[in-house]
Amino acid sequence: RKTIGWRASFSLPYPQPPAKRLCCRPGYNPACRQGQRAGGVLCGGPGSAPGGLGKAHNPESLLDIAARRVAEKWPFQRVEERFERIPEPVQRRIVYWSFPRSEKEICMYSSFNAGGEESGTSGENNDETQLPFLRGVTLLEGGWVDNVLQVGFHLSGTVTDPATASQPEMVCSVSVSFDRCKITAVTCSCGNKDIFYCAHVVALALYRVRKPEQVKLHLPISETLFQMSRDQLQKFVQYLISVHHTEVLPTAQKLADEILSTNSEINQVHGAPDPTAGASVDDENCWHLDEEQVQEQVKLFLSQGGYHGSGKQLNLLFSKVREMLRMRDSNGARMLTLITEQFMADPRLALWRQQGTTMNDKYRQLWDELGALWMCIVLNPHCKTEQKCSWLRELRRWNSVDVCPWEDGNHGNDLPNLTHSLPQGAHGNQESRPHRTVFTRAIEACDLHWQDRHLQHIIASDLYANYCYHDNQDGSLFDTRGWPMWHEHVPTACARVDALRSHGYPREALRLAIAVVNTLRRQQQRQLEHFRRHKKELLHKAVTSITNMEGWVGHPLDPIGTLFSTLTETGRGCCGLGGSRAELQRLPVQRLLGEGESYGALAVETALIGLGQQRVMPDGLYAQEKVCRNEEQLLAKLQEVELDDTLVKIFRKQAVFLLESGPYSGLGEIVHRESVPMHTFTRYLFTSLLPHDAELAYKIALRAMRLPVLESTASSGDLSRPHHMVSVVPNRYPRWFTLSHIESQQCELASTMLTAAKGDSCKLETVLESIQKNIHSSSHIFKLAQDAFKIATLMDSLPDITLLKVSLELGLQVMRITLSTLNWRRREMVRWLVTCATEVGVYALDSIMQSWFTLFTPTEATSIVATTVMSNTTIVRLRLDCHQQENLASSARTLALQCAMKDPQNCALSALTLCEKDHIAFETAYQIVLDAAVAGMSYTQLFTIARYMEHRGYPMRAYKLATLAMAHLNLSYNQDTHPAINDVLWACALSHSLGKNELAAVIPLVVKSVKCATVLSDILRRCTLTTPGMVSALHSRRNSGKLMSLDKAPLRQLLDATIGAYINTTHSRLTHISPRHYSEFIEFLGKARETFLMAHDGHIQFTQFIDNLKQIYKGKKKLMMLVRERFG
């Protein structure tokens, strides 16, 4: 094993015992052996102090007070070196007090089992009783700890795991080494492989903490050996070998050989190792942490890629680091170093960089937390210079690795060093700055220090103030009340606050947080004054620049979240978030609260200042999503606060600041085109202020409705006129990846205002103008229209006609926007608009029909709008009288005729249907169809209208349209399944039913258009089955009843065409026929023969036809054999 902190540095040729240093007795006098005890006494025996377990009225001895202080601070080697001889009672008290007395650290090192099956916080097992610490307590209280022995700085014992249904009883041997009130090494025979202590180690350690009087205490084994004579030593060694001869005999013989050898290494060193003798001067005093297991567990979690709860486990490890930092445990930095090494070794980093893909969001957040933790560690106000230098070397090494993740998640962030002031320009020199990684801020923070006298005074005392200080400059150390301020880059100052909290200095963190908030308040006031002085100049330019390139919301260091948490946790720790000054007298820094103020109120004001800051939208998808996420997190915290009169005053004050602070506010009169929109934040402000100051609420919400990035630059300067802004696609690089989310938040703000404005026509009109001016997405405007409609027509009240009109106006705007663009919801939008107009009234329906060409396509106007308006449901809903019905129907017919003129192909049939009850309109629509039939209508459309005419009782008109359709049709020989076949058969049947003349007129058209033999033969048979003119015969007394002859026109022409089609089709089929189609071909010839035989010389023609086939296709022997078998 590796040994640490030995007084001499050398290597032994045999397995070394777990000793930490070499022990001997300098100046030891053999005469002292006589009369000295070799046995042990109980820890709580004679000479021991109560140590918290005795009676409270017994005063503690000076020996125990001194021994306890020495045991906490000094390594035992230093005690031995300082004093030539230490009395045994003093040694015993030092050894006694060297064991930890607090259970807090033991709990911290065993609070969860990061990788085991018994984890109470890992995977899906949430049984907290399975936490190692709680299991250890159960074992202790159940009496399962036995054979507890303390020899010097070494504690050992056995812990029995009772039998369960699945496991037998198991006895574990446990040993614990300790030094200066810290457990420095643990071993347990249970074979636990985990980051933290197992339940058996916990049980033994707690036994020693809770029952020290029951633990037998011995001095270090070297002290006992010093008291033995040679004979006793020989007996001791021989008995030891005898008891454990199988384990130690080879080692014992090897040691004996080394000792007897004069020149051996073991004889070159003074003293011998003692595992119970305590720590050496060079030993690092820290709690035991299994570094190998930390690395293995982190590597395992990373390899699971976020599955099986691995992300949660890594967050628990980060929480454990923060817990260690709060306890001021040096293992916090050690553990984070080990975690970081495994993160940097993750093979996915190189793969993602090579493929150009980004890591997933949860994994990216883990890297953010890693960077934030390093920021806290390097800002430890009491860390040593050599420690900080060591951390800086590690951070620079990680930072230089190619695959080290960048701070913004995608590419380099063009932000200045956090110790410098921010530039005023919107972009600056982006090319010259190197990429910033997740460690860059921690590296920069290594340059920060805590030696500033003003800073030290702030964090050291609640009483630090200067009530005679009247300097009103930007860099003033105190505000007008005399309270201290801290002027520093805000995220950096807040990082100091977070570091103080993280390292267990909550009072100091709170003092600095209040100084930072006082600074923010003062800066806000001075910014307002500055803008008021230059307001005319800025408004005349109608443009502005970003005053803060690095926004506080969404910042990697989360400055506003840090201040909010610091202030609210302090208030909540005593009497709730809204604790007043009178209620918080026992808390620190209460002198720095104004009259009637509370920590909660200060936190709320800080959040409002941060959320309202005008800031540039960062580059990259991850950074932009982080802005949204951070804003939502802050708002979620604010929504937990119950507003009282004090907070309402703060809201009013901040709302006024936001409206009047110009370029410093995201809600100023003019904002930069690329500033982060304020929709989400303002919706919270609006709902909070509405019950208390409606005018101010609407003013701030209407101001926030703008979205400059989607507005044309030509009109961005004029923000007074309610004109419609031109929607443009953002063309800057990088793009706004979260634009859809931002637009949805804009829509939510508008919807909230519409809901609140119900019943107030003036407010509704103002909100409507703002929506029409600022919202550019048709889907969002449609959603607002639907929302307004729902609110206006709630079942528990009469419809709000003003809000209905707003809904209708928004719907009309959607129709105009989407008229010339493709939108899959268009039909839904049109139907909804008609429904909305119906609710508004008959004049609204008439209006949309009058101006249909600006709202609908001809098809939509006829098939949806006019049809719905003419339906019985609409008439009943509107409760119209006859005159109103006729006026509405007239408008619908006019619309239908206009649409039919513009798009006869798609609207003619609808127009005919709508005009049925008006003869003149119907005739007009029919004439439109006839005119269009020649030019552009397809045979399908004409056949459809023709069938409609027949259905309505106009057979001659149907016949006319059918003949026009036939002129556009062309069926080739192989199209025997064409969808138009039924229309052709219907047209021939219609002609046949009208009479011989009509049939004679249509057959030439059929012969010209149809080349398919089966279709022609079907028509031929139908014409020969009945007498033509059955329809006209109903109106005529003369009906010869004779069937038409196939030898005369017009059927002769059809018969010849059918025979010719069969002949042509046969030759076409034979060109590319395969054997598997032979039987089908024979059947086809059979149908052909039936048609041939309809002619008087058909038998002769068919025989000649077959003979020709045999001659021409004699090469197809098998097929021709089948032909001969069937047809001779």
From TrEMBL:
Single annotated GO MF: zinc ion binding
A UniProt-annotated Pfam family: ZSWIM4-8_C
Entry's Gene Ontology cellular component terms: Cul2-RING ubiquitin ligase complex
Highest taxon, organism lineage: Eukaryota
PROSITE patterns linked: ZF_SWIM
Domain SWIM-type: 172-209
Keywords assigned by UniProt, alphabetized: Metal-binding, Zinc, Zinc-finger
Record protein name field: Zinc finger SWIM-type containing 6
Species for this entry: Hucho hucho
